[in-house]
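Protocol step 4 of 6: structure prediction from sequence.
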Amino acid sequence: MTTRTAPAARSTREPMAIPTPRGPVSAAVVAVVTGPIGLPPIVSSLDAQVDRAIINSRDVLLDDDLQLALFFLHALADTGVVGVDSRWAGDAILATVRSMLESALDEALRDQLTRRGAAGLTGAERLEAFLAEEASEAELDEFLAIAAVSSQGVMVPALVAALERAGLDCTSGHYIDAVDVRVLTARTTATMYAATAPRRSKSAPAPTEVVPLSACIAAAERRFGVAAADQAPVPSVRTEARKLARDARKYAEHAAADHTLDAWMHAESALRHCDVIEHDRVLSAAALAVRDVDVEQVEVGQVDVGQLEHAR
Protein backbone atom coordinates (compact mmCIF):
# COMPACT_ATOMS: atom_id res chain seq x y z
CA MET A 1 0.00 0.00 0.00
CA THR A 2 1.45 3.34 -1.06
CA THR A 3 1.68 5.93 1.73
CA ARG A 4 0.48 9.34 0.62
CA THR A 5 0.92 12.81 2.02
CA ALA A 6 -1.55 13.14 4.90
CA PRO A 7 -3.42 16.16 6.20
CA ALA A 8 -2.83 17.28 9.77
CA ALA A 9 -4.29 15.00 12.44
CA ARG A 10 -7.66 16.02 13.81
CA SER A 11 -9.61 15.27 16.94
CA THR A 12 -11.98 12.31 16.70
CA ARG A 13 -14.55 14.05 18.90
CA GLU A 14 -14.88 17.37 17.13
CA PRO A 15 -18.31 18.73 16.15
CA MET A 16 -19.73 17.34 12.92
CA ALA A 17 -19.91 19.43 9.77
CA ILE A 18 -23.43 20.20 8.52
CA PRO A 19 -24.28 17.79 5.68
CA THR A 20 -26.21 18.69 2.56
CA PRO A 21 -29.92 17.90 3.13
CA ARG A 22 -31.36 15.03 1.10
CA GLY A 23 -35.00 16.08 1.26
CA PRO A 24 -37.55 18.29 3.02
CA VAL A 25 -37.25 16.73 6.48
CA SER A 26 -33.46 16.94 6.76
CA ALA A 27 -33.61 20.43 5.23
CA ALA A 28 -36.19 21.49 7.82
CA VAL A 29 -34.11 20.11 10.71
CA VAL A 30 -31.01 21.94 9.48
CA ALA A 31 -33.04 25.14 8.99
CA VAL A 32 -34.37 24.96 12.56
CA VAL A 33 -31.03 24.41 14.30
CA THR A 34 -29.17 27.01 12.26
CA GLY A 35 -31.74 29.62 13.27
CA PRO A 36 -31.75 31.63 16.50
CA ILE A 37 -32.69 29.71 19.61
CA GLY A 38 -35.44 31.05 21.88
CA LEU A 39 -37.39 32.69 19.06
CA PRO A 40 -40.43 31.35 17.15
CA PRO A 41 -39.26 28.40 15.03
CA ILE A 42 -38.31 28.99 11.40
CA VAL A 43 -40.18 25.80 10.45
CA SER A 44 -43.66 25.48 11.92
CA SER A 45 -45.21 22.10 12.78
CA LEU A 46 -41.95 20.22 12.26
CA ASP A 47 -43.27 17.15 14.07
CA ALA A 48 -46.35 17.05 11.82
CA GLN A 49 -44.13 17.33 8.74
CA VAL A 50 -42.00 14.43 9.93
CA ASP A 51 -45.07 12.34 10.70
CA ARG A 52 -46.35 12.82 7.14
CA ALA A 53 -42.95 11.99 5.69
CA ILE A 54 -42.77 8.75 7.67
CA ILE A 55 -46.28 7.73 6.57
CA ASN A 56 -45.49 8.49 2.92
CA SER A 57 -42.05 6.88 2.90
CA ARG A 58 -41.79 3.82 0.65
CA ASP A 59 -39.04 2.32 2.80
CA VAL A 60 -37.79 4.03 5.96
CA LEU A 61 -34.57 2.02 5.86
CA LEU A 62 -33.72 3.38 2.39
CA ASP A 63 -35.13 6.87 2.86
CA ASP A 64 -32.18 9.25 2.44
CA ASP A 65 -34.10 12.19 3.86
CA LEU A 66 -35.33 10.50 7.05
CA GLN A 67 -32.09 8.67 7.81
CA LEU A 68 -29.99 11.80 7.33
CA ALA A 69 -32.32 13.76 9.61
CA LEU A 70 -31.96 11.11 12.33
CA PHE A 71 -28.20 10.88 11.80
CA PHE A 72 -27.99 14.66 12.20
CA LEU A 73 -30.04 14.64 15.41
CA HIS A 74 -27.89 11.88 16.88
CA ALA A 75 -24.75 13.92 16.15
CA LEU A 76 -26.34 17.04 17.61
CA ALA A 77 -26.88 15.20 20.91
CA ASP A 78 -23.39 13.64 20.89
CA THR A 79 -20.48 15.61 19.44
CA GLY A 80 -22.49 18.64 18.42
CA VAL A 81 -22.62 20.25 14.99
CA VAL A 82 -20.40 23.02 13.66
CA GLY A 83 -22.15 26.40 13.84
CA VAL A 84 -25.13 25.06 15.81
CA ASP A 85 -25.93 26.29 19.32
CA SER A 86 -25.49 23.32 21.68
CA ARG A 87 -28.73 24.24 23.46
CA TRP A 88 -30.66 22.88 20.48
CA ALA A 89 -29.74 19.39 21.69
CA GLY A 90 -32.25 19.83 24.53
CA ASP A 91 -35.07 21.23 22.41
CA ALA A 92 -38.37 19.45 23.13
CA ILE A 93 -39.64 19.49 19.53
CA LEU A 94 -36.39 18.07 18.19
CA ALA A 95 -36.52 15.38 20.89
CA THR A 96 -40.01 14.48 19.71
CA VAL A 97 -38.85 14.37 16.09
CA ARG A 98 -35.92 12.14 17.01
CA SER A 99 -38.25 9.80 18.89
CA MET A 100 -40.61 9.62 15.91
CA LEU A 101 -37.78 8.83 13.51
CA GLU A 102 -36.35 6.18 15.83
CA SER A 103 -39.75 4.55 16.28
CA ALA A 104 -40.16 4.38 12.51
CA LEU A 105 -36.67 2.90 12.14
CA ASP A 106 -37.27 0.36 14.88
CA GLU A 107 -40.58 -0.71 13.33
CA ALA A 108 -39.01 -1.09 9.88
CA LEU A 109 -36.15 -3.19 11.23
CA ARG A 110 -38.52 -5.41 13.20
CA ASP A 111 -40.59 -5.91 10.05
CA GLN A 112 -37.55 -6.96 8.02
CA LEU A 113 -36.35 -9.35 10.70
CA THR A 114 -39.82 -10.88 11.03
CA ARG A 115 -40.00 -11.48 7.30
CA ARG A 116 -36.48 -12.78 6.64
CA GLY A 117 -34.82 -13.39 10.01
CA ALA A 118 -31.16 -12.79 10.82
CA ALA A 119 -29.85 -16.02 9.28
CA GLY A 120 -27.84 -15.64 6.09
CA LEU A 121 -26.94 -11.98 6.68
CA THR A 122 -23.31 -12.44 5.67
CA GLY A 123 -22.67 -9.15 3.87
CA ALA A 124 -20.35 -7.77 6.55
CA GLU A 125 -18.31 -10.99 6.72
CA ARG A 126 -17.94 -11.10 2.93
CA LEU A 127 -16.90 -7.44 2.79
CA GLU A 128 -14.37 -7.99 5.58
CA ALA A 129 -12.77 -10.87 3.66
CA PHE A 130 -12.72 -8.85 0.44
CA LEU A 131 -11.10 -5.84 2.11
CA ALA A 132 -8.50 -8.04 3.81
CA GLU A 133 -7.28 -9.78 0.65
CA GLU A 134 -8.70 -8.52 -2.64
CA ALA A 135 -9.73 -4.87 -2.49
CA SER A 136 -7.83 -2.51 -4.75
CA GLU A 137 -6.31 0.73 -3.49
CA ALA A 138 -9.26 2.65 -4.95
CA GLU A 139 -11.78 0.39 -3.22
CA LEU A 140 -9.94 0.76 0.08
CA ASP A 141 -9.99 4.54 -0.33
CA GLU A 142 -13.75 4.49 -0.87
CA PHE A 143 -14.29 2.23 2.10
CA LEU A 144 -12.32 4.49 4.42
CA ALA A 145 -14.73 7.32 3.57
CA ILE A 146 -17.59 4.95 4.44
CA ALA A 147 -15.79 3.97 7.66
CA ALA A 148 -15.41 7.61 8.68
CA VAL A 149 -19.20 8.06 8.55
CA SER A 150 -19.91 4.67 10.12
CA SER A 151 -17.64 5.70 13.01
CA GLN A 152 -19.13 9.17 13.42
CA GLY A 153 -18.61 10.27 17.02
CA VAL A 154 -16.63 7.17 17.98
CA MET A 155 -13.70 7.28 15.54
CA VAL A 156 -10.65 5.53 17.00
CA PRO A 157 -7.00 6.59 16.46
CA ALA A 158 -6.35 3.61 14.16
CA LEU A 159 -8.98 4.80 11.69
CA VAL A 160 -7.68 8.36 11.86
CA ALA A 161 -4.21 7.03 11.05
CA ALA A 162 -5.53 5.02 8.08
CA LEU A 163 -7.41 8.06 6.74
CA GLU A 164 -4.26 10.15 7.03
CA ARG A 165 -2.14 7.54 5.26
CA ALA A 166 -4.68 7.45 2.43
CA GLY A 167 -4.58 11.23 2.15
CA LEU A 168 -8.25 11.56 3.10
CA ASP A 169 -9.91 14.26 5.19
CA CYS A 170 -10.40 13.46 8.88
CA THR A 171 -12.82 16.31 9.53
CA SER A 172 -15.86 15.02 11.40
CA GLY A 173 -18.76 14.53 9.01
CA HIS A 174 -16.76 15.46 5.91
CA TYR A 175 -17.86 12.44 3.87
CA ILE A 176 -21.52 12.21 4.88
CA ASP A 177 -22.73 13.57 1.54
CA ALA A 178 -20.77 10.84 -0.24
CA VAL A 179 -22.12 7.71 1.45
CA ASP A 180 -25.13 5.63 0.51
CA VAL A 181 -28.22 5.75 2.70
CA ARG A 182 -27.54 2.21 3.92
CA VAL A 183 -24.42 3.47 5.70
CA LEU A 184 -26.48 6.15 7.44
CA THR A 185 -29.05 3.52 8.44
CA ALA A 186 -26.35 1.27 9.90
CA ARG A 187 -25.07 4.20 11.97
CA THR A 188 -28.52 5.37 13.15
CA THR A 189 -29.46 1.79 14.03
CA ALA A 190 -26.35 1.33 16.19
CA THR A 191 -26.84 4.67 17.94
CA MET A 192 -30.53 4.10 18.55
CA TYR A 193 -30.11 0.68 20.17
CA ALA A 194 -27.12 1.81 22.25
CA ALA A 195 -29.21 4.66 23.65
CA THR A 196 -32.18 2.42 24.46
CA ALA A 197 -30.29 -0.65 25.70
CA PRO A 198 -31.35 -1.76 29.18
CA ARG A 199 -28.91 -1.24 32.07
CA ARG A 200 -28.34 -3.65 34.93
CA SER A 201 -28.91 -0.82 37.41
CA LYS A 202 -29.58 2.91 37.45
CA SER A 203 -25.97 3.57 38.39
CA ALA A 204 -24.53 1.34 35.67
CA PRO A 205 -22.74 3.09 32.78
CA ALA A 206 -24.46 3.44 29.43
CA PRO A 207 -23.79 0.53 27.05
CA THR A 208 -20.83 1.01 24.72
CA GLU A 209 -21.94 1.91 21.22
CA VAL A 210 -21.12 -0.70 18.58
CA VAL A 211 -19.47 0.75 15.47
CA PRO A 212 -21.13 -0.63 12.34
CA LEU A 213 -18.80 -2.60 10.05
CA SER A 214 -16.09 -2.56 12.75
CA ALA A 215 -14.48 -5.80 11.55
CA CYS A 216 -14.43 -4.45 7.99
CA ILE A 217 -12.84 -1.23 9.24
CA ALA A 218 -10.15 -3.21 11.06
CA ALA A 219 -9.41 -5.16 7.86
CA ALA A 220 -9.00 -1.92 5.89
CA GLU A 221 -6.80 -0.40 8.61
CA ARG A 222 -4.46 -3.38 8.43
CA ARG A 223 -4.17 -2.98 4.65
CA PHE A 224 -2.86 0.54 5.32
CA GLY A 225 -0.30 -0.81 7.75
CA VAL A 226 -2.17 0.37 10.83
CA ALA A 227 -2.41 -1.93 13.82
CA ALA A 228 -6.15 -2.23 14.30
CA ALA A 229 -7.50 -2.24 17.83
CA ASP A 230 -8.79 -5.53 19.18
CA GLN A 231 -12.46 -6.06 18.47
CA ALA A 232 -14.68 -5.77 21.51
CA PRO A 233 -16.23 -9.11 22.47
CA VAL A 234 -19.84 -9.53 21.47
CA PRO A 235 -21.91 -9.46 24.66
CA SER A 236 -24.04 -12.47 25.41
CA VAL A 237 -27.69 -12.16 24.51
CA ARG A 238 -29.94 -12.94 27.46
CA THR A 239 -33.01 -10.86 26.73
CA GLU A 240 -35.30 -10.37 23.77
CA ALA A 241 -34.39 -6.67 23.68
CA ARG A 242 -30.70 -7.44 23.30
CA LYS A 243 -31.40 -10.11 20.69
CA LEU A 244 -33.42 -7.58 18.70
CA ALA A 245 -30.63 -5.00 18.93
CA ARG A 246 -28.02 -7.53 17.82
CA ASP A 247 -30.09 -8.79 14.88
CA ALA A 248 -31.14 -5.28 13.82
CA ARG A 249 -27.53 -4.09 13.79
CA LYS A 250 -26.56 -7.17 11.81
CA TYR A 251 -29.30 -6.55 9.26
CA ALA A 252 -28.31 -2.89 8.79
CA GLU A 253 -24.61 -3.79 8.53
CA HIS A 254 -25.41 -6.50 5.99
CA ALA A 255 -27.35 -4.06 3.82
CA ALA A 256 -24.54 -1.49 3.83
CA ALA A 257 -21.83 -4.06 3.16
CA ASP A 258 -23.81 -5.87 0.48
CA HIS A 259 -24.46 -2.61 -1.39
CA THR A 260 -20.76 -1.70 -1.24
CA LEU A 261 -19.59 -5.06 -2.56
CA ASP A 262 -22.29 -5.16 -5.24
CA ALA A 263 -21.22 -1.76 -6.56
CA TRP A 264 -17.57 -2.81 -6.82
CA MET A 265 -18.44 -6.17 -8.42
CA HIS A 266 -20.27 -4.21 -11.15
CA ALA A 267 -17.33 -1.83 -11.58
CA GLU A 268 -19.21 1.04 -9.98
CA SER A 269 -18.31 3.42 -7.20
CA ALA A 270 -19.83 2.59 -3.81
CA LEU A 271 -20.09 6.31 -3.09
CA ARG A 272 -22.65 8.91 -4.19
CA HIS A 273 -21.56 11.43 -6.76
CA CYS A 274 -21.45 14.81 -5.01
CA ASP A 275 -19.36 17.95 -4.62
CA VAL A 276 -17.33 16.32 -1.87
CA ILE A 277 -16.12 13.66 -4.31
CA GLU A 278 -15.45 16.14 -7.09
CA HIS A 279 -13.23 18.25 -4.83
CA ASP A 280 -11.44 15.32 -3.19
CA ARG A 281 -8.36 14.34 -5.19
CA VAL A 282 -8.14 10.84 -3.70
CA LEU A 283 -11.81 9.88 -3.95
CA SER A 284 -12.39 11.43 -7.37
CA ALA A 285 -9.52 9.30 -8.66
CA ALA A 286 -10.85 6.26 -6.79
CA ALA A 287 -14.33 6.66 -8.28
CA LEU A 288 -12.80 6.51 -11.75
CA ALA A 289 -10.41 3.68 -10.93
CA VAL A 290 -13.11 1.33 -9.63
CA ARG A 291 -14.92 1.85 -12.93
CA ASP A 292 -11.77 1.05 -14.92
CA VAL A 293 -11.51 4.61 -16.25
CA ASP A 294 -8.02 5.83 -17.08
CA VAL A 295 -7.39 8.74 -14.69
CA GLU A 296 -4.71 10.18 -16.97
CA GLN A 297 -7.23 10.40 -19.84
CA VAL A 298 -9.57 12.37 -17.59
CA GLU A 299 -6.78 14.74 -16.59
CA VAL A 300 -5.96 15.54 -20.25
CA GLY A 301 -9.62 15.91 -21.16
CA GLN A 302 -10.03 12.73 -23.22
CA VAL A 303 -12.82 11.48 -20.94
CA ASP A 304 -15.79 13.63 -19.87
CA VAL A 305 -16.48 12.87 -16.18
CA GLY A 306 -19.91 14.51 -16.40
CA GLN A 307 -20.95 12.16 -19.19
CA LEU A 308 -19.75 9.21 -17.16
CA GLU A 309 -21.95 10.23 -14.24
CA HIS A 310 -25.02 10.72 -16.42
CA ALA A 311 -24.44 7.30 -17.94
CA ARG A 312 -24.71 5.55 -14.58
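Step 5 (inspection) to follow. The mean pLDDT is 87.
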